[in-house]
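Dear colleague,

Thank you for sharing your sequence with our group. We've completed the structure prediction you requested, and as agreed, I am returning the results in plain text so they can be pasted directly into your records. Please verify that the sequence below matches your submission; if there's any discrepancy, let me know and we will rerun it promptly.
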Amino acid sequence: MIISTELFNGKAHDLTILKQTTKIAPSILVVGDSGYRGMQKVYKKTLLPIRHKADINKLTEEQKLNRKATNKAIASIRMKIEHVIGRMKRFKIVAEKYRNQLKHLLLRVNLVCGIVNFEKLGTLVS
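Please find the predicted C-alpha cells below.
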C-alpha cells in the first residue's frame, strides 16, 4: 500500500531523496534494494541485499553461508513493492514525461496512488 508520495526535481540518487524528504521512526523496518546502499548508517533497522564485495568481507562465516537465503527473503519482499510500482506505471504518469501543469502533478500522482491502493484493497477483501 502506498501511504504518501512526494515529488523531487531532476535526477538524484535514491538515498539522497530519502534523506531529504522522509522521516522514518526508529522502530520501523526499512527494506530497500541496492540503490539504498549506506542506508544502515541512517536507519539501524534496515534490510538490504548483500551483494558488494566490501559488504561480504565484513560478514562472519555463518552469515556468509546464510547470505543467499537472506537475499532471497529480501527479494521476495521487494517483489511485492515492485509490483505496486508496476501498477502505478500502468497509468503512465510515473513512467513517461509529464506534459501538463506541474502544479497539478502531485495531486494526480496521489490520485493514481489512491486508485492503486483501492484496486489492491478490493483484491484483499473479495
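Summary note from our side: Strands lie at 30-31, 46-47.

Kind regards,
the structure core
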